[in-house]
Amino acid sequence: MFGNLTRVGSNYHAEEAWNNLKALNGKIGQVQSRLSTGKRINSAEDDTSGYALAKNLEGRTRGLSQALDNVGTAKNVLNIAEGGFQSQMSLLQTMKEKATQAADGSWSGDQRQAIHDQFAALRTEFDKISEDTLFNSSSSLFSSTALEFQVGAGASDQLSIVIGTSVATSVGEGSTDISTLSLSAAGDAQTAIGTLDTAIGSLAKSVQNIGDYNARLSSKEESLSLAISNTEATRSRIEDADFAKEQMSMMKLSILQQTAMGSFAQANSSSQMVLSLFQ
User: Which listed CATH number (3.90.550.10, 3.40.50.1000, 1.20.1330.10, 1.10.760.10) goes with 48-238?
Assistant: First the structure.
């Protein structure tokens, strides 16, 4: 274990001090790398299991973050659909008003026909709104085809939404047909009043469904935000460097580096004592 100072073929103490100094320099380099990158794990070598855990958590966090963006997009799509429904609802209310007006017996045939012409124009605009309610230049949102939204990090985390059709031949949830309504005669106008009341109820149900979907998405938004925060905190605790801890380690290693350097210099010069035997 101990070298002999009178033998100069090998300087055990200097070699040991040199090895210790190299090990300290390696540790200092590792701490400096952590301080410069902000990460405790910069390669798999630093902590193999920690590296695997951190990357899995990072993948989940990024998936959840994208899912949160998807939820925002889904809400935008639903808001566009609701805006279209609201515009159609306004038209239905006006059409109901015109039907009530035409049902009154005080109007002449020509006057009632004028009311009917306005009614028909409103019905045409009703269908036009359905055609123009688009998202991302796709086909009309008013469709019975389900829209699939990815609202989670897993493959099965999807929300299926059916907005439903809303045209003159099939209005809202109840598929009420207003395409053949006429206000040309008082009796027809009276029939139209009842049909329009039903259509208003059907469309109101469709708007309610949109609100229910939006409420579910808002709840999903909150849960995703919480999951992202907690997952990222867990990843950070595993992968990121604790600057206070690393700075304390750096101070300790710097002191040891200086003492190791002094020890190496002292051990390296001890063999010079042999020369005194020749004086």
Answer: 1.20.1330.10
Provide long-range contacts, Cβ within 8 A and 24+ apart, for 217-224: 217/71, 217/74, 217/75, 217/78, 217/151, 217/159, 218/75, 220/71, 220/151, 220/152, 220/159, 221/68, 221/71, 221/72, 221/75, 224/64, 224/67, 224/68, 224/71, 224/151, 224/152
- Say what the pTM is: 0.74
Contact 200, 93 (CB under 8 A): yes
The better pLDDT of the pair 4, 218 is held by 218
pLDDT, one tens digit per residue, over 29-68 is: 778 888 888 888 888 888 899 999 999 999 999 999 999 9
Instruction: Name every residue whose Cβ is closer than 8 Å to that of residue 228 and which is 6 or more positions away in sequence.
Output: 61, 64, 65, 68
Domains of the chain, by residue range, sit at 48-238
Q: Which residues pair with 147 in a beta bridge?
A: 161
Residue type, 99: A
